[in-house]
Amino acid sequence: MGRLEGKVAIVTGAARGIGASIATKLHQEGADVVVTDILEEEVHASAKAISKECLSFKHDVSRKEDWETICKQVKEKKNKIDILVNNAGRLLFQTLLETEEEDFRKVHEVNVLGTFLGMQIIGKEMVSSKNGSIINICSSSGIEGSNGLLAYTGSKFAIRGMSKVAALELGPLGVRVNSVYPAGMNTIMGNPLSLPKEEVDLGFKQFPAQRIGNPEEVANAVVFLASDESSYCMGTELSVDGGMTSGRYYFNAPGAPEV
Ligand SMILES: NC(=O)c1ccc[n+]([C@@H]2O[C@H](COP(=O)([O-])OP(=O)(O)OC[C@H]3O[C@@H](n4cnc5c(N)ncnc54)[C@H](O)[C@@H]3O)[C@@H](O)[C@H]2O)c1
After folding, report:
1. What pLDDT digit, counting tens, does each position of 64-104 carry?
2. What is the Cα–Cα distance from 142 to 180, expressed in whole angstroms?
3. Which of 147, 172, 213, 257 has the greatest number of C-beta atoms within 10 Å?
4. Could you give the domains of the chain?
């Protein structure tokens, strides 16, 4: 508790899932949290559940004007911005041969353009006060490919690359940029049919954790990167994926789990 006392944080895509969990955890650690999402009613409800003081905005991360409005309003109301979590994301389950141009664009507008605009507009504000921590929520799909996830994988590799360049450019100006790589999280995106956890866990037996992840486990990683405890972390890639990107088991070799 209190690891983020006195800090002002913005979390995008915080109406539900991982974003809501991150916002809740940042608040529990003492941050003054602002939540945003394209889902208006849901983001206001999410803010209410966090605290009476939690500000909320309808926000399409792919719109520059939305970012500028939020930046201005948060500055006016809170006087500064210390933490930005670029969490809003859009998934598309389609193969290379099926993907429509329009759908490809939409995924990139939210995931790539949204992250770029956030880092640029809020980053500029942070640079002016020579202080800030930006955390981009990427994915195991930013590390390795999976069939059926062409557009999403491309967008997450882009976030990974942009996080590195931003870390290089903003680090000397007092702003740290890091990225987090979740996989297999129990949210609408990760478990769209809301199947019972025990049932979903069966599909994870070939990975080291042998279970689906909880959004709180991503939030714990974000708290670390948001706090001064990670003051020497810049351009860091932090996987929260139950070991999914560690490699593959040879199931007939020693040390393989029973599936
Ligand atoms: N769930 C997983 O297994 C998983 C794995 C790897 C990475 N991630 C990443 O974690 C992040 C959160 O995922 P989640 O599982 O909570 O998904 P989710 O679908 O439950 O939540 C995503 C949130 O982003 C919001 N959003 C979508 N488009 C937006 C836009 N244009 N502007 C603002 N907000 C918008 C949605 O309204 C929603 O509230 C995403 O970036 C996702 O790619 C999730």
Report:
1. 999 999 999 999 999 999 999 999 999 999 999 999 999 99
2. 10
3. 213
4. 8-240 (3.40.50.720)
- Evaluate whether 25 touches 100 at the Cβ level (below 8 Å): no
Q: The whole model's pTM is what? A: 0.98
Of 12, 18, 197, which is best to mutate to test ligand 1, by the most ligand atoms within 8 angstroms of its C-beta? 18
Q: How many Å apart are CA 223 and CA 33, to the nearest integer?
A: 12
The model's pLDDT over 227-253, given as tens digits with 9 standing for 90+, comes to: 999 999 999 999 999 999 999 999 999
Find the residues whose C-beta lies inside 6 A of ligand 1.
Answer: 12-13, 15-19, 37-39, 59-62, 87-90, 110, 137, 139, 182-185, 187-190
C-alpha distance from residue 37 to each of 57, 206, 249 (Å): 7, 34, 39
Using DSSP's 3-state secondary structure scheme, residue 43 falls into helix
Active site (catalytic) residues: 152
